[in-house]
């Protein structure tokens, strides 16, 4: 990736921050996007390579073309768009008291991602570039207490599978990245049944993958322009069990949430 221009969303923390550090070490020239300017500034101070911060709430859909224009104005090109920004929720459907949770998750995880992908398409076609999209294993199967999040990630998977087919012959590739549970701040800010942030992670973090380890594996898949990366052995197994033994994968998903890992 040495010398490539990479636009990375959700860059200020978690997987995004880890990706930024590892991409910079590989020589990528970065346009880093998140809502918090201060966290972006501290990140840039830690990077060995060239990087620019662009503070933006991606749900401001009418500003996404501005982001692409700023990238092209600064670097002159765009080689890879890594769509990492996202939010999550934790609640059984019957416990939801604020159904706007479902709309907020869909707006950030799916609509903003799809709109930005559309805005970047002319630049990526010109460079024969690459979409790398951080989805989730929940984009492949339902997981209890994550209904709205699952729905948004299923939408992401469908959108980019369709876009991949449309882009055949253009030189633009699509990689879908599906991590398992990862240690990030996202879980602490997950919305509960009332739409408010949980404030603490519901995960047993000692038992799940770190953001650094996840980012390192993702980058290998991104460099190869791999079609699909599944972030755990149980995720790879689950993909086939859903076809062959769907009742079993339902039970495994329920057990994983009960154990919070």
Can you walk through the features of this model?
This protein has 261 residues and is of the alpha/beta class. The protein has one domain (5-232): 3-Layer(aba) Sandwich (Rossmann fold). The protein contains eight helices and seven strands. The chain has helices at residues 14-25, 37-46, 64-75, 100-127, 147-166, 211-223, 233-244, 246-259, and strands at residues 5-9, 29-34, 51-55, 80-83, 130-134, 173-178, 228-230. The protein has a seven-stranded parallel β-sheet with strand order 3-2-1-4-5-6-7, with helices on both faces. The two termini are 33 Å apart.
Name the descriptors:
globular, Rossmann fold, 8 helices, 7 strands, alpha/beta, 261 residues
Order of helices and strands: EHEHEHEHEHEHEHH
Cα gyration radius (Å): 18 Å
Strand content: 5-15%
Would you count the extended β strands for me? 7
Ordered list of secondary-structure elements with their pairings:
Layout lengths: L4 E5 L4 H12 L3 E6 L2 H10 L4 E5 L8 H12 L4 E4 L16 H28 L2 E5 L12 H20 L6 E6 L32 H13 L4 E3 L2 H12 L1 H14 L2
Parallel strand pairs: 1-2, 1-4, 2-3, 4-5, 5-6, 6-7
Helix pairs in contact: 1-6, 3-4, 4-5, 7-8
């Amino acid at each position: 990736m040495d010398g490539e221009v990479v636009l990375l969303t959700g860059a200020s923390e978690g997987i995004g921050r880890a990706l930024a550090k590892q991409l910079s070490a590989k020589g990528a020239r970065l346009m880093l996007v998140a809502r918090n300017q201060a966290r972006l500034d501290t990140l840039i101070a830690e990077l060995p390579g060239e990087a620019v911060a662009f503070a933006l709430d991606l749900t401001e859909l009418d500003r996404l073309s501005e982001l692409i224009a700023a990238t092209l104005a600064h670097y002159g090109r765009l080689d890879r768009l890594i769509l990492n920004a996202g939010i999550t929720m934790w609640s059984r459907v019957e416990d939801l008291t604020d159904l706007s949770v479902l709309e907020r998750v869909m707006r950030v995880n799916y609509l903003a991602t799809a709109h930005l992908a559309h805005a970047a398409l002319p630049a990526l076609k010109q460079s024969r570039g690459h979409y790398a999209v951080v989805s989730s294993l929940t984009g492949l199967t339902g997981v209890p207490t994550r209904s709205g999040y699952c729905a948004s990630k299923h939408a992401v998977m469908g959108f980019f599978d369709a876009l991949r087919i449309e882009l055949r012959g253009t030189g633009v590739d699509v990689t879908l990245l599906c991590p398992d549970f990862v240690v990030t701040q996202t879980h602490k800010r997950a919305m509960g049944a009332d739409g408010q942030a949980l404030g603490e992670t519901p995960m047993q973090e000692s038992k799940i993958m770190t953001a650094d380890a996840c980012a390192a594996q993702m980058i290998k898949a991104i460099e190869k322009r791999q079609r699909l990366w599944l972030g755990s052995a149980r995720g790879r197994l689950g993909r086939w069990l859903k076809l062959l033994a769907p009742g079993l994968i339902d039970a495994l998903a329920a057990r994983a949430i009960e154990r919070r890992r």
